[in-house]
Design goal:
The protein is mainly beta. Helices cover 5% and strands 38% of the residues. Residues 1-32 form the signal peptide.
Length: 524
Amino acid sequence: MTERPARLRRFARLAPVLLLGAAPMLSGPAPAGPLRGAATDAPLAVQRAQFGTPAAEATPALDLAEAASRPPLAVGDVLALRLAPGETAYIRLPEGAGDLVAQTRRLARGTDTVMALVDSQGRVLAEDDDGGEESLASRIEVAADQAGPLFLRVRLLERTAGRFELALQAAPPSDSSVSARTLTEAVSRPELRVGEPVAVELRGRQEAYFRLPPGLQDLVVVTRRLSSGTDTLLTLLDANGREIVEDDDGGEEQLASRLEVPAGQRRPLYVRARVLGVAGAFELVALPDTAPATPAFPTSLREATAAPALELGQSVPLRLRRGQTAFFRLPEGDIAVLTRNLRRGADTVLALLDQAGTEIAEDDDGGGGLASRIEVPASEARPLYIRAGLLGDATGEFELVVEADAPLAVTFPTSLADAASAAPLQPGVAVPIRLRRGQSAFFLLPPGEHVALTRMLRDGTDTVLELLDAEGRMLADDDDGGEENLASRLVIEGVRKGDVFLRAGVLGDGAGAFELILLPPGGR
């Protein structure tokens, strides 16, 4: 008799027991011990029916190639599985069986399944963690028009062991009162009617898809009337399912979403709605976009040049559509340009430009949180311009403000020559530093081994430390080696020739505020 491979012998030892989908569900909790009829030394144990069905049919495999050689799981059948830590089961699906739903159920205590739909090359077509009916169970929908052969890949989260059932059932008929759950289904559904809200209720990883009407007018698609704890996410898709734009918290209500859809955008277009979290309920509605077609602010350097310059103390309310930016000419003097009162999920970005449009400086979060701030000294030659936009070309609202910015008195050396004539940096004493754009702090270091740290970084500051010799040549540097995010840490050896200096600056020569401290070796 020909010796069979070990993996096939492992399955041959299992006593198959059939669980038909039409049979009653077993009551009570999953058994605490090994499954009945399962070989206790086999990491992957299976229960399947014996109603005249050979034991080898539709048994799981430990790899895709092995699963491809096995008969498919029949619609209505249920497999009871036990997986060892790190083990993966592959099950072949039937072809030509219509729309299907595969889900895990009756999970033993502590079991958390993850299921994926894969093609014959192992490419993941869909994946689900907790979308099943039970807590921690998984659910995958398989459309009838998806080309086979297709397979289910089932794993357990966190490399644990666990027991559960895998059931394959025919998908229920589409309910026109329930939102489409796939892009394919949305294609055949009626389009979303402008002004008519749709009630949506989603679990975990579920999604709802909607076809948008023809591009006869500019639209906004919003979520509203969110139930307690609901956090929505909207995505605009093209006919191939490619993401065009996404919004999380840009809606009027807290945690609501908002998408702008111009009339000129090529159709067909679809909206995908999700919830961030376990579940949620909300309304989704498409409304006419009543925002003026022509912005009330300059949208180019040329327009900004022809418009009056901003004035000190002036606050300009801005609402930017997707991809829009605003340009303004700046006044004379020491000024700070900043954003504030951010709404609709706005994350602002400011850029300082010269008259040719060359970018001199840029700031994202220097104004605190998601706000921005750029300081412009009086010594910088005008004309200068500010470009205000949103990160990722999103939509949002905020105020752009110009304030007088009197330079603060500098309490530290700002050049190598100044540092050479000043007292050395004192170990153990924190030095508060606030740098304007293009500024650096320089310090003569005392003898011995030390560790230089930046800490207490404020308003998005990203520090850089450099060790320099007396000629200004860099001996060592560090950007993000500190304990805090974006902080720096530089080890300074005790053996050296001549004086050495420490330069503390901000990445990209931007503005920033932080503390600098010199500690003994090993200090953090």
